[in-house]
Structures
1.
Amino acid sequence: MEVDDPMEGGLTNVDTSKPYADVHISEFKDNRQVRIAAHSHVVGLGLSPEGEAIDRQGGLIGQSAAREACGIIVELIKQKKMSGKAVLLAGPPGTGKTAIAMAIAQELGDKVPFYPIVASEVYSSEVKKTEMLMEGMRKAISICMKDTITYYEGEITELTPIEDVAAGNAYGKVTKHVNLTLRSAGGWKKLQIDAELYDSFMKQNIEVGDIVFLDTTNGLVKRKGRSDVYRTDHDLEQDQYVPLPTGSVDKTMEEVKYVTLHALDQANAEPRAAREGGLSGFLQRALKSKKTEITERLRNEVNKVVNSYIETGKAVLFPGVLFIDEVHMLDMECFTFLHRALESPVSPVIVFATNRGLSKMRNSDEVVPLGIPSDIIDRVLIVPTRPYNKNEIKDIVEIRAKAEAVELEPEALDKLAEIGMASSLRYTIQLLTPCKLLGATTKPGSPVSIQTIQDVQELFIDARTSADLLKEQASA
Ligand SMILES: Nc1ncnc2c1ncn2[C@@H]1O[C@H](COP(=O)(O)OP(=O)(O)OP(=O)(O)O)[C@@H](O)[C@H]1O
Ligand SMILES: [Mg+2]
């Protein structure tokens, strides 16, 4: 079977002597996907400095061994000792696997990328399975770059918009660019800024005689105040006067940027011509808006550039985490891809989660432990999660109720814990919002009572009762 290597074109040992003319690197904050509404109370693993799990810390209850194991994994990831390795959170439904993965993300902080996907997402109709995985892997690797940027500081002595006749509109005029002259104690400089940046000038009412800070790389402009030379003795203006900046107008500073490989791919993908395919193509693209423009060739180019920066010490690579929830949904092709990817010199850490024991692999008759082929299982660190006792369930429900602003009578909380034990933690947590709603209509202003819970339970049954009911109806 043919599978793509996510790092093909390699991030090591590439020929860096060739020019990469068109690739430019710009900052892009990767949107850390927040699919975590159900886990919004989780803010970390809640470990002591010695790495021991503290109860109720980080928003987590119990599950100490798994949390402590994940604490070690987080440390290893931060020390870059986990690259190319995988972790599997394995345990029954509702034992906090996804919650703990979210806690790992929190512990890693902003600089180490964490990208979560649910395995079933790879079966999209538009994008190849392995392409989705590839994208996920590249969203889970970032580089840190030191960049030297030029900025300008000085008093404005000229600010002249240059206008142009708007295309297709003989009467309207648009600003083409703006001529700007800045002076400082050390000299002066003529600049041409684009119309977009000029908008920020207008918003801040910047005019001739003001002292500004201008960073054209990042499109930033800031008015620092009015130049001192404009101050008069009987000045009634409440303006802030600032001295003329020393040194020359243009200065440089070092900037550290974190950016994922995927963001670099995206930033450098050729913009699609908006006119391609006529109106229907135009609409379809808007409706489907899928990210197929990133080609393998482009990725290879980006890899080469990144590699040249790494080799010259300008950039450092940070393999982060790709979290694949419900991993038993993947098929052999996906696993083969991931296996190869893990062997590549640069790979993120892959954290899997599954609630399956022995399970048939998707699109195959093979029954494998945990729904994962044995060659992958062999290289995975398995972290088990265990079912909760009634007190733990009660504590978790209490935390969730607080997060969802649901007030409960003490007996109602006990009742929900009982329900959690008898059916599932998920089910009992899901009852919270309907209870709040129903309680607000039947007994406005009072905390949710046992009666409300019973009423809601009659409306929304749990999975087991539902299955039993269907069986009964089928045999009737
Ligand atoms: N130890 C815990 N402390 C606090 N909240 C928890 C804990 N474990 C689970 N939860 C919360 O309980 C709910 C169910 O847990 P979660 O979804 O993490 O279970 P899971 O093991 O991923 O289940 P599944 O196998 O069905 O995916 C979530 O809202 C989660 O945030
Ligand atoms: Mg889960």
2.
Amino acid sequence: MSDQHEQWLARWREGRIGFHLAEPHPRLVEYWSCLGLAQGSRILVPLCGKTPDMRWLAAQGHEVIGVELATEALEAFVAESDQPAAHDNDTRFERWQQGAITLYGGDFFHFRPALAGELAGFHDRAALVALPPSTRQRYALHLAHLLPPGAAGLLISLTHAAGPAEGPPYSVDEHEIRRLFDANFRCEWLRSDEDARGQGMREHLWRLVRRGPGAAEA
Ligand SMILES: C[S@@+](CC[C@H](N)C(=O)[O-])C[C@H]1O[C@@H](n2cnc3c(N)ncnc32)[C@H](O)[C@@H]1O
């Protein structure tokens, strides 16, 4: 296991999860419908933690697939609901199924299309910005590998003044978003706001649509 992985597991163990929000992210609630994704369609939440965004997406009628390194986070997520849950670890990933939500415990970079199934979209809040500079291009390529042409998602990134090497969360500006994603996604900036945690951080909301044959080019 890498040092970065150890650091995330230690954060969860020690409860250093200041990024966690008890309520669904306001930008998700406000902007999700602009993606126009059908009820019943499957949504990927990479590096999901125990975000209630997943329950909100399920309540909109989606099947939700969450992927998270810290199984402790996924256990906590499952325990927050009375809904029965099934658990197995047949694959390289530990898996929980609770209603329309399926959670995979393991490294996102080992998550394969065969497990993801036919995805229609994704929701990245604080996933890209959790990763150091050297890993972010790999993340953008892996996301593209998992999503078919036309799949759409929201990406909520962050900038701060502490410098590009300081994180997590890392500061990822517009130039970098376009450099990482433009080859495989149509990227549209939607808005920027102060991050609720203050500390001079700003959150930036993007809509991304996977490019490729059959995907509408607006
Ligand atoms: C900043 S948190 C964001 C969690 C969630 N998206 C939210 O909004 O609360 C980043 C999460 O990514 C997880 N993580 C880091 N590297 C990962 C990897 N390679 N595979 C899966 N999860 C990872 C961490 O354990 C942590 O829970």
